[in-house]
Amino acid sequence: MKHFKTLSSYLEYLELPRPEHPMLSVFNSKGDGYLPCPRESSPPITNDCYTISFKKFVEGNLNYGRTQYDFTNGALIFIAPRQVLQWDNSVVFERKGFSINFHEDFLKGTELAHQIKKYGFFSYSVNEALHLSPKEEKQIELIVENIEIEYQNNQDEFSKDIIISQLDTLLKYANRFYERQFLNRKEIASNLLEQFNQHLTEYFESGQMQEKGVPNIEQIADKMNVSQRYLSDTLKKETGKTTTEHLQLYLIDEAKNMLLQPHKSVSEVAYELGFEYPQYFSRLFKKKEGISPSAYQQKHSLN
């Protein structure tokens, strides 16, 4: 797999114009302009750059990580360094929109270098992109125009600070708009939780939990064709609980049923639920229920 360490080498591979700055490029189709078209196909590649782009594709599939996204409606997409990208000639590139690419070292020594790692949407798959309303799109376009002005001007001692400040503002707006997107997708969140529990049920009933142990969140997210971060953020916004908490709730619920089966020991329940050490299961059960598994058995055997 090809990996590009510099922004210039990455853009050269894409067959795009050389950047005005060694660590930053801005392409914007404002007015009657058009975006340059990148190469029509690519095997899996990685690079050390962040990308923020909008409406770059209108049809076809671009692979990002392990998933695909239909770009017909256009969206704001965030790609982090070292994410795997791949596309073929079925993708048609829209000539309207913008694309900002910057090397991760461009942020070195700034507060944004730390803050950008806290934005979960850089870890989302492309099919979890941000869809903007016309009003939101206009707000983002104004920020991009400010970035482009500084990018095209002769660089001085203030240029980098101003550009990074504008990038920071863009990301803050994106965070706000993602919050809105989560709130407007209660049905999607409900379906995700239903799918999440369904995958756990299938995993448990197939005997894999006892054989392979408790599944991690990434495994479940992969099965659901969403990213781990997106799954966690969506469920957290809608239910107030993280994916780990939902996993624990499922395990405790199953444990309650199993503990009430005749002649079932706490250790047997723990092993069947995929816990390598019964003590860990007992601690989790007591933390969630307020009593130990054995006390739970005794309490209900008396009723």
Automatic annotation (TrEMBL):
Signal peptide: which range, if any?
A: none
Q: Which residues form the HTH araC/xylS-type domain?
A: 198-299
Is Cell inner membrane found in the keyword set?
Answer: no
Question: Can the keyword Transcription be found in this entry's annotation?
Answer: yes
- Cite the SMART domains for this sequence: HTH_ARAC
GO terms (molecular function) for this protein are: DNA-binding transcription factor activity; sequence-specific DNA binding
Q: Could you list this entry's UniProt keywords, alphabetically sorted.
A: DNA-binding, Transcription, Transcription regulation
Protein's name in the database = Helix-turn-helix protein
Species of the source: Arenibacter echinorum
